[in-house]
Amino acid sequence: MFFRKDVMNKKIYIVGMGPGSEEAMTREALKALEESDIIIGYTVYLDLLKAGFGHKEMKSTPMKQEVERCRMCFDEAEQGKTVSMVSSGDAGIYGMASIMYEISLEYDSDIELQVIPGITAASSGAAILGAPLNHDFCIISLSDLLTPWEKIEKRLKSAAEGDFAIAIYNPSSKKRADYLMKACDILLETMEEDRPCGYVKNIGREGTEYRICTLAELRDAQVDMFTTCFIGNSQTKIIDNKLVTPRGYGL
Ligand code: SAH
Question: Which of left, alpha, beta for 159 (phi over 0: left; psi -120 to 50: alpha)?
Fold first, then answer.
């Protein structure tokens, strides 16, 4: 199938804006926002963009109304506007990219969607801690809003069995205050208590904080929804206060 760019003038960019600061956005993301008539996203992310893009029309819907926010993008695009839908990090990693494709089926086929990748929290957080994901790794979200807890538990056990380094997203929220503890308890069934771990709060935003600790300490850590946690594999070590998972060069 061929697409002619010039006849597909209804455009929605699905933009990954990285962890927070404009510096951590790609040039491609900045260009997409510049080209857009309207920027749509969750208010926290729109606020982060106000400094550089305050002159643009911005629209939002409250938290948990993600699907309505996506429909808003298509409604605006149908009026002929170029739209950017922003997600933090990478829009294709626990972001809005897949929902946008699913919803596109309800709309005119002449609206073009383009995903613009961004730096996901696993990458930006890893860079702060050192190099904890420098071998096979997986990302697991502890949010059971859209995934049954039994499946999350199975994935944690499988990751431990496969000796993957793990990045944990959505480690906690007000309603799920003890989820990180529950997850660590599952990992502690097979991993040693002093497995090197770490976590980073507010990456790329005001109040960035990080800590390198053991798995037993991570279990009791106070984390929030703006924290990403890292669990080393069996080879992970601490070098000069940084968390490092070796490639295996035998150094
Ligand atoms: N699309 C995002 C992830 C959204 S899920 C991305 O690619 O990064 C939300 C989870 O991502 C949070 O609970 C947290 O675990 C992680 N996260 C996103 N931004 C973060 C930041 N600035 N600092 C720390 N963790 C972050």
Answer: alpha
